[in-house]
Design brief:
- The protein is of the alpha+beta class.
- It has one domain.
- It contains four helices and ten strands.
- The strands form two sheets. It has an eight-stranded antiparallel beta sheet with strand order 1-3-4-5-9-8-7-6, sandwiched between helices. It has a two-stranded antiparallel ribbon with strand order 2-10.
- A hairpin with a 5-residue loop joins strand 6 and strand 7.
- Helix 1 crosses helix 3.
- It is globular and about 40 Å long.
- It starts with 33 loop residues before the first helix and ends with a strand.
- The relative contact order is 0.22.
- The N terminus is likely disordered.
Length: 210
């Protein structure tokens, strides 16, 4: 399934209405959530595979080196859409999400190397919950991401809005990578349902946090 790219440049849309009130309970810090760590580890591993493939295939002269990013870590926290906008702005780069989803809360986290995760949690689930049963949209610094993903996909990529492409991760159908021309980051959609992960990544739902 292909979605024809739009002719417009990728820009941030207008402000959205707050989805939920900020979480008032203390955010758990320093606690290891093994299942959640496992999901994030899979995302990191697939990024590493793409980088290695890029090096083996040979990057183009127009691709920059993969940037080394240092960021202030943010433990998983439940936030409103407005607070997500502020947190995304603090990263200094575009952060993608799947827009507001009915009956879910937004969880934001950031690692020391600049990877950002927006997770969609149902009511009653607290920040940092170890379950891997939830939709995650990840954004991480990666110069030349579009060209790299196109090479690694080897013709199996799918066109998405704003001129971007998406490709299912090899060996991990629940993860779909996406990238856009002229940006120094790559994104990934994870969902326990491979079908839903693909639909979210390719339907036009993925947008920059406003």
């Amino acid at each position: 399934m292909e979605v024809e790219p739009s002719s417009s440049l990728r820009t941030k849309p207008g402000k959205v209405t707050t989805l939920v009130e900020p979480h008032t309970e203390p955010v758990p810090r320093g606690k290891t959530n093994k299942n959640l760590v496992r999901v994030l580890a899979v995302i990191v591993l697939t990024v590493a595979v793409i980088v290695i493939a890029w090096l083996l295939l040979g990057r183009s002269d127009n691709d920059s080196a993969v940037p080394v990013t240092t960021a202030t870590p943010v433990a998983p926290e439940i936030i409103s859409a407005d607070a997500l906008s502020a947190s995304a702005a603090d990263t200094g780069h575009v952060v993608d999400w799947a827009g507001p989803i009915v009956d879910t809360k937004l969880e934001f986290s950031q690692t020391a190397d600049g990877r950002v995760y927006v997770r969609y949690l149902p009511a009653g689930v607290k920040a940092g919950d170890p379950s891997t049963d939830f939709l995650v949209v990840a954004t991480y610094p990666f110069a030349g991401a579009y060209n790299v993903l196109k090479k690694v996909a080897n013709g199996e990529e799918v066109k998405i809005l704003d001129g971007g492409i998406a490709a299912v991760s090899s060996g991990q159908a629940q993860s779909v990578h996406f990238a856009f021309p002229g940006t120094a980051y790559q994104g990934e959609v994870y969902d326990p349902s491979a079908k839903r992960a693909f639909e979210v990544a390719t339907s036009g739902a993925i947008q920059p946090v406003p």
